[in-house]
Design brief:
alpha/beta; Isopropylmalate Dehydrogenase; 2 domains; seven-stranded mixed β-sheet; five-stranded mixed β-sheet; 12 helices; 46% helix; globular
C-alpha cells in the first residue's frame, strides 16, 4: 500500500478539485491510500455523494490556509494548523507515508520541504522538475524550474544527476539525453555559470550529456532533460506555456472570424481536440521536488481534478520505482 497525503487547500479550485482528483486516483489505483488535510467539514461536503473505498481514505482536520503573499519562513512556524503544514508534518513524522501533493504556496512548500522534511544525503538544494510533452510524443523534464534561483556549477551538476534518475526510474527513459540551457549550442557559449558547468557535465558519469540547448528547441523531442538554474528554468517553462496558450487563443479567434473557417474547423474537430489535449498542462501533473527525503509534488495553482490525479500518480511512480534510493546512490558515486 502506498500512502499519499494531499493538501486540499491553496489552489484556485480548492477543495473541490483536490478532493475529486484524490477520489479518482483512489479508484484507479487499488494499492493507494489517501490522507486529505484541510477543513474537515468542507472536505466531507465535497466527498458527499462520491463513491470511494472508505477504508483507504482518511481526513486530518487543518482549517488554516497559507496565502501566496505570506512569508514562507514565517508561516511554516506560525501556521502549523494549515492544510499544507499538517501534510508536511505527517510526511516528516510518519515513515509509512510515501509522499505528498500540494497546489498551495510554492515558496512555503519548498521551504517546508527543505527545512522540515529534509534533504537526501549529499543534496545541496532540492530542485523542481516539471514535465512537458514534446512534438515527437515523448516528454522533457526541466530541472530546476524555480526552487533555486541562484545556482553554482556543482548544483547544476546535481540537478543533471537527479533529473536523469527521475526520468529513468519514473518514466523508463533509458539514458536520458541531458542538455544545458544556454544561448547557443556551441560549448564556449554562455555566461560564467554555463561555461563552468559545461565541462562538469561532460565528465559526469551516469549522465548522457549531449551539449547545450537553445530555448526554442525545448519541445522538439531532441532532449529528455534540460539542466538550468531556477530563474532561467522558470522563465523557460512559463514562456513556453504562455506562447502555447496564446497560439490556441489566436487560432480560436481566427476560426470564429469566418464561416468558411468554422466549416473547416468542424471538419478537423478531432485534430483540434487532440492539439488542445496535447498542449493542456493539466494532463502532465506537477513538479516533483527532487532531492527531498520524501517525494513532494507541487501542482499548478489552477490545477483541476485531472491534474491532481496525475500529481498523485507521480508520487506513486516515484515510490514504486524507488526513485529517492536511486538518487542517493547516484549522488554518492559522483
Amino acid at each position: 500500500m502506498i500512502k499519499v497525503v494531499a493538501d486540499c487547500f491553496g489552489g484556485d479550485h480548492s477543495p473541490g478539485a483536490n478532493v475529486e482528483g484524490a477520489v479518482a486516483a483512489l479508484s484507479k489505483n487499488k494499492e493507494l491510500y489517501i490522507i486529505l488535510t484541510g477543513d474537515e467539514a468542507n472536505i466531507r461536503a465535497e466527498l458527499d455523494g462520491k463513491k470511494y473505498d472508505r477504508d483507504r481514505l482518511e481526513i486530518i482536520h487543518a482549517p488554516a490556509v497559507i496565502g501566496c503573499d505570506e512569508k514562507p519562513t514565517e508561516v511554516i512556524k506560525t501556521k502549523r494548523d494549515s492544510s499544507m503544514m499538517a501534510a508536511i508534518d505527517l510526511l516528516r513524522t510518519d515513515e509509512t507515508v510515501a509522499g505528498m501533493v500540494s497546489v498551495g504556496s510554492t515558496g512555503a512548500l519548498i521551504a517546508a520541504t527543505t527545512l522540515r522534511v529534509g534533504r537526501l544525503p549529499g543534496v545541496m538544494r532540492p530542485a523542481f522538475c516539471p514535465i512537458l510533452p514534446t512534438m515527437t510524443g515523448g516528454i522533457v523534464g526541466i530541472c530546476d524550474s524555480g526552487a533555486v534561483v541562484d545556482c553554482g556549477p556543482e548544483m547544476l551538476k546535481q540537478f543533471a544527476v537527479m533529473g536523469s534518475v527521475y526520468l529513468q526510474s519514473a518514466f523508463g527513459i533509458e539514458s536520458p539525453r541531458a542538455a544545458l540551457l544556454n544561448i547557443g549550442t556551441e560549448s564556449e557559449k554562455g555566461d560564467k555559470l554555463r561555461k563552468e558547468t559545461y565541462p562538469l557535465l561532460e565528465e559526469l558519469e551516469g549522465v548522457n550529456f549531449v551539449g547545450n540547448m537553445e530555448s526554442r528547441d525545448l519541445l522538439t523531442g531532441k532532449y529528455d532533460l534540460i539542466v538550468c538554474d531556477g530563474f532561467s528554468g522558470n522563465v523557460l517553462i512559463k514562456t513556453t506555456e504562455g506562447a502555447c496558450l496564446e497560439m490556441l487563443k489566436m487560432l480560436k479567434k481566427n476560426i470564429y472570424s469566418s464561416w468558411k473557417y468554422k466549416l473547416g474547423a468542424l471538419l478537423q474537430k478531432k485534430m483540434f481536440s487532440q492539439i488542445k489535449d496535447f498542449m493542456n498542462y493539466q494532463n502532465y501533473g506537477g513538479s516533483v521536488i527532487l532531492g527531498a527525503r520524501k517525494t513532494v509534488v507541487k501542482g499548478h495553482g489552477s490545477s483541476n481534478a485531472r491534474a491532481i490525479e496525475v500529481c498523485i500518480d507521480q508520487v506513486c511512480r516515484a515510490e514504486s520505482s524507488r526513485m529517492n534510493e536511486k538518487i542517493s546512490a547516484a549522488l554518492s558515486g559522483n
